[in-house]
Design brief:
Number of strands: 2
Order of helices and strands: HHHHEEHHHHHHHH
Shape: globular
Strand content: under 5%
Length: 347
């Protein structure tokens, strides 16, 4: 229900948002130093992340209202993280469209907002134990499940803040071509659905044993992941090339927060690296380009970073790049699911 409602709300709500944004002239500003093919996108409505957030949260709540199931603290924490990061992105988008230039919040302002929000999320997540003593966020470092490495309250906050900030910026960097970030996000959210359902079925409360999972609310987190998968799919219908709307920082920061928040509450923190492999690859391309540029005195590894623009300047078509990058995202998710299942098989 959650995924279906989110899909419908996003699919039919996005054109309403497009007309509203276009009427107010809230269009995307295109930098002159980017690929020249992007200049045709100037003026396309942005801040489309608003509908992704609204559709996902509304669908999640509506599904619970109809089913009669109570919402969980874990899901509410992730929702709060998503809304807060989306608000930071909204301010950035608003400044860009109101000033009609590509400069919104400064990098320091945006990063500071992300760190503060992620730290609050991490701190609150270590509270609210259930009757089994499980909190939404574990004090243990997790790979495909909790490990024996105890981080402690302070380092949990630092670690989660690093995860959330890195992931939200990774999605933000990926959001450079029509449908690229939204399509890759759908694939990753589907993986979270599978993992959440599996963790619930094999949880220590349902199926006690040496190999069971100790996760607070895995099934409800799977429901939330379904909401975001549906919302991104509906938005992708309008965001696919040629895009009628862009998600903007409102959407990219929020989606990055959703990915990191869900991975944290499912206790598969390091598994987010292969599951979000495309975002990692694109982020690394920017880091490599920046470091090499400084070390070599102005030389470049790629024609342009992030990586998708390098292939644009090589002459690849936008749709070709997006589809091939989706394939890479799918392969990364398959590898992540394989690692998750291999851990369970190995016991």
């Amino acid at each position: 229900m959650a995924g279906g409602f989110a899909l419908l709300l996003s699919l039919f709500g996005t054109p309403v948002l497009i007309r509203s944004l276009a009427r107010r002239g809230y269009g995307q500003f295109i930098r002159d130093d980017g690929p020249t093919s992007h200049h045709t996108k100037r003026g396309t409505p942005t801040m489309g992340g608003i509908i992704i957030i609204v559709a996902a949260v509304a669908a999640y709540l509506l599904a619970h209202l109809i089913s009669g199931n109570a919402v969980t603290v874990s899901a509410l924490l992730v929702i709060g993280l998503v809304i807060a990061l989306g608000f930071v992105g909204f301010i950035d988008d608003w400044l860009k469209v109101s000033r009609q230039q590509s400069l919104g919040l400064s990098s320091r302002q945006k990063l500071s907002g992300q760190i503060v929000i992620a730290s609050i999320f991490a701190y609150i997540g270590t509270l609210f134990p259930d009757r089994d003593g499980l909190t939404p966020i574990s004090s243990q470092l997790s790979t495909v499940r909790d490990t024996s490495i105890t981080l402690g309250a302070f380092f949990v906050i630092v670690w989660v803040a690093l995860m959330v900030t890195a992931t939200s910026n990774g999605v933000n960097l990926t959001d450079g071509l029509d449908g690229l970030a939204s399509g890759a996000s759908v694939i990753t959210f589907i993986a979270f659905i599978l993992i959440g359902v599996w963790e619930f079925g094999e949880s220590c409360a349902v199926s006690p044993g040496l190999n069971c999972y100790e996760v607070r609310d895995p099934l409800d987190i799977a429901v939330l992941a379904a909401s975001f998968a549906g919302a991104c799919t509906g938005f992708l219908w309008w965001n696919a090339s040629p895009a009628k709307i862009f998600m903007g920082d409102t959407g990219s920061l929020a989606l990055g927060g959703a990915l990191a928040g869900i991975a944290t509450t499912l206790r598969i923190e390091l598994l987010l690296i292969p599951l979000g492999g495309l975002f990692v690859i694109i982020t690394m391309s920017v880091i490599i380009q920046t470091l090499y540029f400084k070390i070599s005195g102005g030389k470049r590894v790629f024609r342009m970073a992030p990586l998708q623009h390098h292939f644009e300047l090589l002459g690849w078509g936008e749709v070709t790049i997006v589809i091939r990058f989706w394939i890479i995202a799918g392969l990364c998710v398959a590898a992540g699911l394989g690692l998750f299942y291999a851990d369970w098989i190995a016991g």
